[in-house]
Amino acid sequence: MFLATSFRNHLVAASGEQIAAAIRMTGGAQNIGTSGPATSTITKVKPKTKRPSLYRVLILNDDYTPMEFVILVLEKFFQKDAEAATKIMLHVHHHGLGECGIFTYEIAETKVTQVMDFARKRQHPLQCVMEKANA
Ligand code: TYC
To answer: Whole-model pTM above 0.85?
Structure first.
């Protein structure tokens, strides 16, 4: 609405909270003493918020970690109830690996560390890894 009458050679920024308008006077000293009106330029600035990359946290099967311990891990670190934890554990037992959850990088990294530390402390060979999720 301040883009009233005295602008020429300008780009008009659409209004809205995601669009910042950078305004600068152009011409500077050259405008002094000229007959034309002062000139301003309004430049659209792209909003730069990006969705974070996501990572899958996986557990791997082995021959020694007790089924009950894997269920406990899924309940304790991934907020699964007993039924969901049992399903995931059996999927891993039969297929070799399975997904515990999908998280941003730092949270996935923390989960992996927590699971690995917990398993090592109990002397179980359970392995937990993360991989970048698609899209
Ligand atoms: N295969 C293990 C057993 O028979 C159970 C197990 C399941 C281990 C899932 C690890 O991520 C795992 N005791």
So the answer is: no
